[in-house]
Amino acid sequence: MARVRRLTGQMGLSPANCRKVMTACAQSVALYGSELWWKISRQSKGRADEIQKLVNQEARAVTGCFRTTNAGVLALEAGLRPAEAPLNNRQQ
C-alpha cells in the first residue's frame, strides 16, 4: 500500500481515481481468501479489525487528512465502505 500511495502522490491522481487504485490493489490483496475465514472462526473479528485499519489508511492516503481525523468522517469523505461490507459481499 505504501508503494501505491507513493505512486498516487507523484502522479497527482484525483481522489476518486486514487480511491479506485487503492481499492483494486490493496483491498483485493488483503481480502484474498476471506471467504474461508469470515464468519466461521472466532478470530475473524480480529482480522476484520486489521482490515478496517487498512481501510482507514487508504482513506488517509486518498484524502490526505491528518492521523487525528475521525475515522468515520474520514471514510465518508474518501467514499470507502467499512471493512465488514466487502467481507460480507465476498461471503455471499
Describe, in plain words, how this protein is organized in 3D.
With 92 residues, the protein is mainly alpha-helical. The protein has one domain (2-91). The protein is 72% helix and 0% strand. The protein is built from six helices and no strands. The chain has helices at 2-11, 15-30, 34-37, 44-63, 71-78, 84-91. Helix 2 runs antiparallel to helix 4. The longest helix is centred in the middle third of the chain and has 20 residues, at 44-63. The radius of gyration is 13 Å and the shape is globular. The two termini are 26 Å apart. 20% of the residues are buried. The model has no long low-confidence stretch (mean pLDDT 81).
Order of helices and strands: HHHHHH
Coarse shape: globular
Whole-angstrom Rg:
13 Å
Number of DSSP strands?
0
Summarize the main sheet.
none
Helix content: over 70%
Low-confidence stretches: none
Structural class: mainly alpha
Task: Determine the strand fraction and express it as a percent band.
Answer: under 5%
Distance between the termini: 26 Å
What is the number of helical segments per DSSP (H or I, 4+ residues)?
6
In short:
The chain is mainly α.
Features:
single chain, 92 residues, mainly alpha, 72% helix, 0% strand, globular
